[in-house]
Amino acid sequence: MKFNVVVVGSTGLVGQRLVSMLSKHQWFNLIGITASKDKANKKYKDVVKWSLENKMPENVEEMIVYDTNIENINNLKPDIVFTSLPTDISKDFDIQLVKQGYVVISHASNNRMDKDVPLLNPEVNADHINVLKLQANRWKGRLIKVPNCATSILTLALKPIYDNFGLRHVFVSTMQALSGAGINGVSSMAILDNIIPYIEHEEEKIENESLKILGELSNESIKPNESFYVSASVHRVNVLEGHLESVFLKTDNDVSVEEIKKSLIEFKENKIKNLNLPTKPSQPIIVRNEIDRPQPRLDRNEGNGMSIVVGRIRKDNRNWIKFNVLGHNTIRGAAGNGVLIGELVAKNYNDIIQ
Amino acid sequence: MKFNVVVVGSTGLVGQRLVSMLSKHQWFNLIGITASKDKANKKYKDVVKWSLENKMPENVEEMIVYDTNIENINNLKPDIVFTSLPTDISKDFDIQLVKQGYVVISHASNNRMDKDVPLLNPEVNADHINVLKLQANRWKGRLIKVPNCATSILTLALKPIYDNFGLRHVFVSTMQALSGAGINGVSSMAILDNIIPYIEHEEEKIENESLKILGELSNESIKPNESFYVSASVHRVNVLEGHLESVFLKTDNDVSVEEIKKSLIEFKENKIKNLNLPTKPSQPIIVRNEIDRPQPRLDRNEGNGMSIVVGRIRKDNRNWIKFNVLGHNTIRGAAGNGVLIGELVAKNYNDIIQ
Amino acid sequence: MKFNVVVVGSTGLVGQRLVSMLSKHQWFNLIGITASKDKANKKYKDVVKWSLENKMPENVEEMIVYDTNIENINNLKPDIVFTSLPTDISKDFDIQLVKQGYVVISHASNNRMDKDVPLLNPEVNADHINVLKLQANRWKGRLIKVPNCATSILTLALKPIYDNFGLRHVFVSTMQALSGAGINGVSSMAILDNIIPYIEHEEEKIENESLKILGELSNESIKPNESFYVSASVHRVNVLEGHLESVFLKTDNDVSVEEIKKSLIEFKENKIKNLNLPTKPSQPIIVRNEIDRPQPRLDRNEGNGMSIVVGRIRKDNRNWIKFNVLGHNTIRGAAGNGVLIGELVAKNYNDIIQ
Amino acid sequence: MKFNVVVVGSTGLVGQRLVSMLSKHQWFNLIGITASKDKANKKYKDVVKWSLENKMPENVEEMIVYDTNIENINNLKPDIVFTSLPTDISKDFDIQLVKQGYVVISHASNNRMDKDVPLLNPEVNADHINVLKLQANRWKGRLIKVPNCATSILTLALKPIYDNFGLRHVFVSTMQALSGAGINGVSSMAILDNIIPYIEHEEEKIENESLKILGELSNESIKPNESFYVSASVHRVNVLEGHLESVFLKTDNDVSVEEIKKSLIEFKENKIKNLNLPTKPSQPIIVRNEIDRPQPRLDRNEGNGMSIVVGRIRKDNRNWIKFNVLGHNTIRGAAGNGVLIGELVAKNYNDIIQ
Asked: Is the confidence at residue C217, as pLDDT, over 80?
């Protein structure tokens, strides 16, 4: 018995990855894909500017794209809706969907900080899914948010360190790939032989979402972590895929580099929720010991893009820990995480929609 | 009355910039240029792989390159020798030169941390030149060191902040240009669609040299600054010229963003030594207010490559200051600073060699 | 006595270069600049995304941008109008302007092949300006077209070869810079680690415009050259500025490589019209003898971007001539040529408007 | 019964691909790998700078690298030796090996034009293998050459056109990837924002080898094709993998674009030798009909890098055919072709060594 799913906003970069992963998924039937009006009622292959390294799955080439509107979703009656829309559109459409009673896994940034909305990075905080029952006060359906890309990568690296050694300060300077801005997001003239030290709202997202993801679930809501804080500085670089982050952090107690490594390597998943899910990588955090890794082009596809890679773990002379963490931003940082969340939702479907 | 100068190691990237700047300098006569044996006794234009954006000066095209050895320098009898050699060669040759009595301005990293060797970034610490007299205990000549490229750029930004508000912590994550590794330093296959999170010895240089440059001159020697510390994480990116640095810092006392900006804009030069020097930029620190600047390709040539550009000055919610600083790494960070130091030396020549 | 000029479409890449060159021109007063409605009535510095390597001229920073409409031009009453508009808008607006009686130098591709419209590359065919009198049959003003960028570069190289040795076949494979597509013309994700073997309508432009530029002026009109033909294959590459073209050609009679070189080096200007014009480069064609030149980044700024650079001139074993030619596409290939044409027009102004 | 094979020169880019493909090959046992003396007697994983997109095969990580000398090969006694050495070394070592009696498949350019040495691109000229018997006059072993990368890609596209419509002229302008020059072959500073219009000896290779590959086998030797000729112009571009070639050609008789397409799509293999070989792609030539393909990053991996992709097939107004052809230069153009040749050799082993 597979779950019927729809991808709303199927032609952008994240939409393409969702379509690619869901079109042949062991737990899901992809029963519909939508896009903006100008692309509606045409074959997917004729309206999408396919930009992934793997080919378009044959079974979606001929699928007819629906216009993104509530009537079309109502006709399809999916069990789960994955939305990947521009924030301004997503804001309204996500809410329409949950009011109609759908279970929605949304990639846009609106509502991410709502106390009754789980912001999931499953290995880190799958248990936050339990907050969904609070949404019964607001609407019939359920809204789950996929975090910001750089944040998903960062928090997966922080989780075992926080659990084992505590955290006080985290400074992170990111070098983010072009794909994070979408297919036409960055002009080639803007970035050739250059770096752009700015991405709109990105720093606030990293700073705030990290604390929520590493926050605690109480009966009332998700309480953002208050024991530490994150300060971010973000940069767009001329790399196709893979966000590289340079992290400086202070743990509660002094800890050796070897202890940090061990905690990262041994980390497997959220302690509360069992994550026997198809898209979960066998090794969520890969630690490399070479002096010059991780590197985006060489390491971004680890674990089919679902593993993060940590390297250059070292201490400075005031006992701050420094390292680099790399993750595939449109897989681990977006669509792959969305699908993993979808699997978590599927496994707990009856609990969620009760 | 011009000073006679020689460039030792004239065919690398820094050597080329030295030759370019010194070949038509109002205070200097370029009387000789040297390179390794295989290039010696040939015309400069026939052995150099010219890599600068401006053309090779006509008056050096036909200059005959000397083999880098002490006899050739002795025949030339320069007043000042600029050396730009690989560290392992520089280590011996610089010392040979100063033992023979020459005034040497050296770009290699050896001896930079010697207590009686000034490591100069003139606007920041021109007064450190006074330590040269201590070298009379070691040799007849004088050795002056040009700092690491990323460090020169960083310390120029830190100086007014340190002077006005005090400093406790500095975290810096760098994105460094290809030219920093020399003409053939980074393979194109290594860096296309990629970042390399490692540059040998670079982090130690930034961490240690910064404290020396911002250190104090006492009768005995230069005392590294002990009031703050620097922790660095370095990365090589696919940019031709211009090191971009992401800085997080804590001042002694809380300070507003506007006060920081004011201190940077108003900063002109070292308080003790007058710097009426031809290569000194009229505005050493340029502050930009746009949300997305500085950018390497757009801002690296400010002040003919001698100004640094600071932007995105902001505070996080624990009152740490964050900003980006950019500088032209082979001009401000290397040859341009070398020439500026040469001018400082020329102006104080009699004091220095007494 | 300077000529009053207006730049219509002043915020694109070509518009920026026009503004940059005309704002401090010895023969021209820049009395107005226009842009689309959303940018009108604001300061130029606040609406333009400045993308040139040199700074915005101070005297245009504060200029108020006019909306592009005929009333505004009528209020300004310029002697010459430079237009740099998208083709679909240019088509109508250029004609409106000439009907009103203005002398228009237009960069868009419409009307370029009209028999009474000179398509000028001044060193090659300045004499074609004489065809302008035929326009008196159509309108009060005069329309002059700037050729396609790749074509201007190619025809300048072909002219001395055609004049001296005759031409039968020209095959040209281009590698064209990003700037040719405008500031946002090529997405970074599309071109990183890639080549796009297509530019809309470009091959037809090169093939047709070349024959017109090298055509003959008769009493009736400009007759395209019929003695040879051009076949083009175009490619977009990840280079900021500078179109590199690989040319294979057959002359009427066999000719040596040295004779070709001599003809290129000695070429100065159109035989009929004297070109004592400020923007004309002293050496329109520079020949390089190194085995690996011209290269875009190293050679595109020759003659302030107005010279083309030819290299690797050789023959294959059937006596076809092969070479590479490089030119700065937004200067020699667009705005620089536009200004040069403007100067030619100014010098012959009374003849033209009679 | 598998054939024992050795890879001589196993650490360069082509060597890495050979090792990758041969380490788990259904017909071959990889019994030894060699490299230069400084890498000998160490584990492969410790001396190779692994540069492929797929991981190093586990079964070679721990293999001990042999020094490249004849004694080591004699101890290993392989059935087939694949050599991938610098030309100057390969020249001597290949000959040593064949004199000792080995069957050698060599990637270097020496001896490629020898009349009794087959230069194989199996789908095109597998029957040329029959010339090997002539080598009995020279040595005990057999020498087979892998063609130049750009030539393998070009001749595969030319073969069906030549067979069906005849050929008179071929002009080809190449845009070649960085990997063609090896791991450290092109400096990043040389190629960023640039094109290098030169690759040593490449044009002669394309021009001469193409005629040999499309030549005829007679009793005496391979006779280069004399009915047409090739004229090449080569360029290095900032692309990781995948040579793109722009071709202008004249067939014997006029032919339609559709006929050309049909001949390319229907082409499967050499008419004389059956090629039921594991590495042969099911579709050697893929034709794309989009206006802007092939593109290196999107199309280079077709057929696991063994298919070439042809697009933009069109005619100019003198009935010349124009198209772009793309191939993966280190797979189809080098190691993949080497392995395919190895399979052809294995299938005909007894005939060859008789």
From this structure: yes
Specify the CATH number for the domain of residue C72: 3.40.50.720
- Give yes or no for C185 touching D (CB within 8 A): no
What DSSP state is assigned to residue A148? P
C320: nearest CA partner in chain D: D231
d(CA D39, CA B194): 27
Q: What is the pLDDT of residue C70?
A: 97
**What residues does C250 pair with on adjacent strands?**
C169
- What is the CB neighbour count within 10 angstroms for residue B6? 25
**Residues A213 and A306 both lie in one domain:** yes
The answer to whether B171 and B234 are in contact (CB under 8 A) is no
Is D295 in contact with C195 (Cβ distance < 8 A)? yes
Q: How far is A243 from chain D, CA to nearest CA, in Å?
A: 18
Confidence of residue A230 (pLDDT cuts 50, 70, 90): very high
Strands A80-83 and B216-217: unpaired
Instruction: Find which of B186, B234, B235 to mutate to test the A interface (most A CBs within 10 Å of its CB).
Output: B235
Q: Residue D33 in contact with residue D60, Cβ under 8 Å?
A: yes
**B78 and B118 inside one domain:** yes
Active site residues per annotation of B: 149, 243
- The answer on A180 and A43 residing in a single domain is no
Burial of C56 (0-12, 13-18, 19+ CB in 10 A): middle
Query: Measured between CA atoms, how close is D343 to chain C, in angstroms?
Result: 32
Domain at A234, CATH number? 3.30.360.10
Residues C180 and C225 in one domain: yes
More confident residue, A271 or C141: C141
* Structural domain count of chain C: 2
Tens of pLDDT, residue by residue over C232-276, are 999 999 999 999 999 999 999 899 999 999 999 999 988 888 789
Same domain, B154 and B296: yes
- Which residues of A are part of the catalytic machinery? 149, 243
Instruction: Give the relative orientation of helices B149-165 and B202-213 as an angle to the nearest 10 degrees.
Output: 40
Buried b (16+ CB within 10 A) or exposed e, D141-177: bbbbbbbbbbbbbbbbbbbbbbebbebebbbbbbbbb
User: Which alpha helices (H) appear in chain B, and where do they start and end?
Assistant: 13-22, 44-47, 58-61, 70-76, 87-100, 122-125, 149-165, 188-191, 202-213, 257-266, 296-299, 336-347, 349-353
- Do B86 and B187 lie in one domain? The reply is no
Question: What is the DSSP code string of B256-284?
Answer: -HHHHHHHHHH--S-SSS----TTS-S-S
Q: How many CB pairs under 8 A join B and C?
A: 5
Using CB atoms, which chains have 3+ pairs under 8 A with C?
A: A, B, D
Q: Does residue C328 carry a catalytic annotation?
A: no
Domain of residue A323: give its range.
149-328
Q: Which residues of C touch B301 (CB under 8 A)?
A: 53
Question: Which of A49, A50, A53 to mutate to probe the D interface, most D CBs <10 Å?
Answer: A53
Residues C272 and C178 in one domain: yes
pLDDT value of residue D76:
97
**CA-CA distances (angstroms) from residue B109 to A300, B114, B171, B199, C23?**
35, 11, 22, 14, 47
Give residues 214 to 273 of A whose Cβ lies within 8 Å of C. 238, 240
C-alpha D28/C-alpha B102 separation (Å) is 66
| Chain C, window 291-310: residues with a beta carbon less than 8 angstroms from a chain D beta carbon | 291-298
Strands D28-35 and D66-67: parallel
Same domain, B144 and B229: no
Q: What is the pLDDT of residue B354?
A: 73
Per-range mean pLDDT, top range of B85-89, B139-143, C54-58: B139-143
- Whether the pLDDT of residue B273 is over 90: the answer is no
Kindly state whether A189 is in contact with chain D, defined as any CB-CB distance less than 8 angstroms. no
In whole angstroms, give the CA distance from residue D329 to residue D346: 24
